[in-house]
Amino acid sequence: MTPSQDLENLLIDRAGLGAIRAKVDQGLRLSFEDGVLLYEHPNLMAVGALANRLRTRMHGKKTYFNINLHLDYTNICIYSCKFCAFAAKPGEDRAYLMSPEDIYERILPLRDSEVSEVHMVAGIHPEMGYEYYLDIIRAAKRAKPDIHVKAFTMVEIDHLLKISGKSEDQVFEDLREAGLGSCPGGGAEVLTTRIHKAVFRDKISPEEWLACARKVQEHGFKMNATMLYGHVERVKERVEHLVRLRELQDECGGFMTFIPLAFWPYNTALENYGKVTTGWNDLRQVAVSRLMLDNFPNIKAYWVMMTPKVAQTAQAFGANDLDGTVTEERITHDAGTSAPMELPKTELVHLIQAAGFEPVLRDTTYQNFETVKS
Ligand code: V47
């Protein structure tokens, strides 16, 4: 054992977390009660050291990122979730809808660039039919055939299954044929009945989100999972969310990354209720996620919601991925995030290296890697 490991053990054990350390060291699963304890423990540094230990065992000093683009193809949405500042109703000045041609024209100039992924997530439009969804994927692939299309949260997939008039197998076959590569992890919010009723009651329930994720994975697609935290949820509800995801991952194994999403309250129905999450809370959320989700290969610190500085620090609290360059995200910017619109590759590399980690450029599904030197 090195002197720094000795010191780390001392920090963790003196904080009264020796029993959890023993479980982490033996690769044993943490319980629901362990999760609650980690969230409530006053010594964040000790919780972070535990998460960093697991992160180091899984990934060493590597931090992954990619070069990507977000296209939130419409903000028109039939739902009115209390946490959302992005959604608009048809006819509102700020309402917009991108056509397949718009998607094509936006991606075409990137044909010879390093961009490897387009992330497409949006509201549930009341009128767009099944073919529209296939057409926007096709448009992205037509513009840049090698781009990975990571599109449609479980809310959109569930909607597609309902409006398609086709069998489940056919819908997934159509999506694959159109060029869908994988699915992003949004729309889960907090997977408990109380939070569903309180802040997103019209949208699919926690059980429906999990059932849809199971279908996606059973049809051979990889996907991510998220949790929207920092609003009206309680500690036990955050733990319940993590445990439910962990159980589904045991069953299906198709989750690539978990992304804790820090809530931004501005322009939402929770503006006067919620406070912007603090760096302290964000780092703890990353650390507890790493420790509880032992079967998730990656934990992402999403700088758009967490801010670049907190995301950078999160690398030492369990995160091994910083997402990507992003460019053009609207959902969090409409809700007042203080993060910039885009981080150039050089800036991401700097954030990673300045914290003593090794930047590794990845593709969406973590199949191809390129170590970045600067
Ligand atoms: O589902 C909505 C969240 C999600 C707010 O899979 C908000 O790689 C904060 O899913 N404050 C969409 N968050 C984003 C998403 C995502 C992002 C980055 C990477 C990946 C991935 C997925 O944004 C929504 C919702 O949970 N959201 N409003 C808000 N006011």
Q: What is the highest CATH level, the class of the largest domain?
A: Alpha Beta
Overall CATH architecture of the largest domain: Alpha-Beta Barrel
Order of helices and strands: HHHHEEHEHEHHEHHEHEHEHHEHHEE
What is the strand arrangement across the widest sheet? Answer: 9-1-10-11
Topology:
Blueprint: H1 3-14, H2 18-25, H3 32-40, H4 44-59, E1 62-66, E2 68-70, H5 100-107, E3 117-120, H6 130-143, E4 148-151, H7 154-163, H8 168-178, E5 180-182, H9 193-199, H10 206-218, E6 223-229, H11 235-252, E7 255-262, H12 279-292, E8 298-299, H13 303-306, H14 308-314, E9 321-324, H15 331-334, H16 345-354, E10 358-362, E11 369-371
Helix pairs in contact: 1-4, 3-11, 4-12, 5-6, 7-10, 10-11, 12-14
